[in-house]
Amino acid sequence: MPDHEVVIVGAGPVGLLLACLLVQDGVDVVVCERRAEADPRTRAIGIHRPGLDALDAVELGPAVRQDALRLDGGDVISRGRILASLTFTSERPVLVLPQRQTDALLRERLGLLSPGALLSAHAVRRVRDEGSFVRVCVDTASGVREITGALVVAADGVRSPRREELGIGWRAHAGAGAYAMADAADSSDDRRARLYCEPEGLVESFPLPAGRRRWVVRQGSTGAEPLTAAAFRAVVEARTGIRPEVSDEVAPSVFDAAQHTARSHGRGRVVLLGDALHEVSPIGGQGMNLGWMDALRLSEAIVRDRARGSFDLHGYGRRARRSARSAQRRSAFYMSMGRPSNGVSLVARDTLIRTLGSAPLRRGSAGLITMRGI
């Protein structure tokens, strides 16, 4: 008999949500996380309707609604003119909550449901499918440990060692760029997101809870150099006329946005979940929510099949990859709108944005941004 029914590799928001879902249905779960402490970074901030539904399923919706900032809507601006203005309804809200707070809520919930299920400072070295169970080799502070499970779920991120260990290919899709990001003080009570589609490139501005605002600037294709706080402020001001209150002590983070999908959802008794299965550009804010949707689907499949001791997860894989491709196409479009532009292409882009924000199309455009239909 395996030690556990399910071993989850990775205690990010997606792995934690799956653990909570499974434990609620009586599944014996353990989560292996390589970090000794929770990740303190802000990282993902947007929670859309599908993500909120997933959090409701583990009884965290009320706490998230209480702690998060709810966006009133968003504006797309170019050269000082508002091209489109959207409102987010109560049926399709966009909530903003730093990932570290979301993670904390999920960790607390899992601790209540199954004390001891989360194994911190447990770095998975390798997994081996033995046919009737999976053997997991783990590095711990006290040495190497072996854990066995009927199923292993790899929720270990975009660079998933488990995906590479399984030899599953990583297919690239359209949508790539380099960005810099910094959070700044903001004393206003402004609850609107703003996208500045300027000739020199995109600047995004999102309100955060507790009097903060996130700024993101497009730098180029990929591999851009880091910026100092002063240089970051100068870029934002040059493009938008606004000088954000980014402290000199802040080191803006630089990241390359890219989009990929795994060629398979897994092999045998090892299955991929979330970013290990698909990478979606953070421009558009869909990745974490998409992973939560995957977790709901995977949980349903595991609970359905656990009694017979084998798992048919092909349906889960097809649905997860289909949703990912829809999200990736949307993100690729958002990124194309933020590329540097001039002349005829700039006029055409502005005209398209105005059209999408016009009264007949406004509701549909808001639905696309809030993940309707994915």
Key words describing this protein structure:
374 residues, alpha+beta, eight-stranded mixed β-sheet, 19 strands, elongated
How far apart are the first and last residues' alpha carbons, in Å? 38 Å
Topology pattern, helix = H, strand = E: EHEEHHEEEEHEEEEHEEEEHEEEEHHHH
Radius of gyration over alpha carbons? 21 Å
Helix content: 25-40%
Q: Report the total helices.
A: 10
Note the overall shape. elongated
Strand percent estimate = 25-35%
- Unreliably modeled segments: none
Largest sheet: 8 strands, mixed
Q: By helix and strand content, what is the structural category?
A: alpha+beta
Overall pLDDT confidence: 95
The total beta strand count reads 19
Structural write-up:
The structure is a single chain. By secondary structure, this protein is an alpha+beta fold. Helices cover 34% and strands 30% of the residues. The protein has helices at residues 13-24, 49-57, 61-67, 99-113, 161-166, 229-240, 287-305, 314-337, 343-356, 359-369; strands at 4-9, 29-32, 46-47, 69-70, 73-78, 81-87, 95-96, 118-119, 123-129, 134-140, 143-154, 170-185, 192-198, 201-208, 212-220, 253-262, 266-267, 270-272, 278-279. The strands form three sheets. Strands 1, 2, 8, 9, 10, 11, 17 and 18 form an eight-stranded mixed β-sheet that branches. It has an eight-stranded mixed β-sheet with strand order 6-5-13-14-15-12-16-19, with helices on both faces. Helix 2 crosses helix 7 (287-305). It is elongated and about 65 Å long.
